[in-house]
Amino acid sequence: MNEKQYETVVEFVASQIGEDNSGHGLAHAKRVKENALAIAKEEGGDEDVIVLASLLHDTADHKLFSDTGKQLEKMKAMLLENGFTAEVARHVAEIAATISWNKGQQKELNSLEAKIVRDADRLDAIGAVGIVRTIEYGNSHGRPFYTQEEIDSGIHDDSITTLAHFYQKLLLLEDHMCTKAGKELAHDRSEFMKTFLDEFYLEIGASSK
After folding, report:
1. Which residues pair with 102 in a beta bridge?
2. Which of 66, 98, 165, 177 could staple 107 via S-S, CB 3.0–4.6 A?
3. How far apart are CA 83 and CA 119, in angstroms?
4. Are 190 and 181 in contact (CB under 8 A)?
5. Segments forming the whole domain that contains residue 65
């Protein structure tokens, strides 16, 4: 991938999700790319596919677009128009369509590149950045961080606060990493989130979940 192709892809991402305020914008895409390259350094894989899929993965995310099929076709067309092969376009679109955590359901991954990009995306959902993104996402959907009822009676599977999201998804991600390098990187970030939650409960005068 040459510099012009890279810049064109970044411009496409910016045009699709650049103004997102739920933690899925261009800055997130670039962090996922860096995470993926760090993992790929240990695991291998096709670097062009990894970079492209990392940058483009949220341009067809079900949380942001009602017609993900249309977005995937738009993505593939952009790649073909800018000199990428049909196989690369197909592979990148397949990764974008399969890496998301949707209500706890995970689609089977068929390539090393998909596993790397999924791990890279999940790394950006945990740790310090993950905490910020989780709060941003909750705010964008009008969700409170917590309710006193949850503190008093506990978090349930159908709880929809931002605090509940830590237990329903974020603290589970370390065990769902696909690569050895991803698991190692996830561990410290998960531990930081646990420390954050301990401090949060301490400051509001409650025991931890």
Report:
1. 105
2. 98
3. 27
4. no
5. 3-203
Q: Under a CB-based contact definition with an 8 Å cutoff, are residues 186 and 177 in contact?
A: yes
Minimal CA–CA distance to 176: which of 104, 87, 96? 104
Determine the Cα–Cα distance for residues 48 and 6; give it in Å rounded to an integer.
10
CA distance 79 to 41: 24
Cross-strand bridge partners of residue 105: 102
Q: How many residues does the chain have?
A: 209
Q: How far apart are CA 34 and CA 59, in angstroms?
A: 18
Contact 195, 127 (CB under 8 A): no
In a domain, 208, yes or no: no
Please give the structure tokens belonging to residue 69: 């099929």
CA 9 to chain centre: 18
209 domain-assigned: no
- Residue 77, φ and ψ in degrees, nearest 5: -60, -40
For residue 141, the 8-state DSSP code is T
pLDDT per residue, tens digit, the chain (209 aa), is 999 999 999 999 999 987 766 667 899 999 999 999 999 999 999 999 999 999 999 998 888 888 989 999 999 999 999 999 999 999 999 999 988 766 445 667 889 999 999 999 999 999 999 999 899 889 888 999 999 988 888 887 778 899 999 999 999 999 999 999 999 999 999 999 999 999 999 999 986 65
CATH of the domain at 165: 1.10.3210.50
